[in-house]
Design a protein that fits this description.
single chain; 166 residues; alpha+beta; Alpha-Beta Plaits; four-stranded antiparallel sheet; RNA binding
């Protein structure tokens, strides 16, 4: 196929360069899609729809919810445990609010009430947290009590009022 080793090397380098360029473009596109997704979440244009039937398709979900406005994106997630849900990204925030307020009217008699809320709540939970309800053997509830732990409400109120006067 190649007349010389140099020609082979040249073609191989061209393919590698093309592959790197392609991967770079794909990475940039993915980054741009993620920015758009985050922007839609921040603008409250993404609606979470929970309790979907297991036979619900993306097309059906989009068709049912587009009565509230133009939909940019629609995704359905079907799980083995039956916890099926979808996300709808509206073009305008007011359409997402309309879907939240009135989406329950789209329920058919043979399906459960939709669970509707704004999608992307994970953005508000980015910080790490500690499990304060741990059942660990080394957990000592006494160590978490403050000097106010044994006071009743009235005593706490008097203590707070005294500290304000100081």
């Amino acid at each position: 196929r190649y007349d010389s080793y140099e020609e082979y090397q040249h073609e191989r380098l061209k393919r590698e360069e093309y592959r790197r360029d392609y991967e770079k473009r794909e990475s940039e596109r993915a980054e741009q899609r993620e920015k758009q997704r985050q922007k839609a979440i921040e603008e409250r244009r993404v609606v979470y729809v929970g309790r979907l039937r297991s036979d619900c398709t993306r097309t059906e979900l989009k068709r049912r919810f587009e009565v509230f406005g133009e939909i940019e994106e629609c995704a359905v997630n079907l799980r083995d445990d039956g916890d099926n849900f979808g996300f709808i990204t509206y073009r305008y925030t007011c359409d997402a609010f309309a879907a939240l307020e009135n989406g329950h009217t789209l329920r058919r008699s043979d399906e459960p009430q939709f669970e509707l809320c704004f999608g992307g709540q994970k953005q508000f939970c980015k910080s790490h947290y500690a499990d304060l309800d741990s059942h660990s053997d080394d957990f000592d509830p006494a160590s978490t009590k403050s000097k106010y732990g044994s006071l009743d409400f009235d005593s706490l109120l008097r203590e707070a009022q005294r500290s304000l006067r100081r």
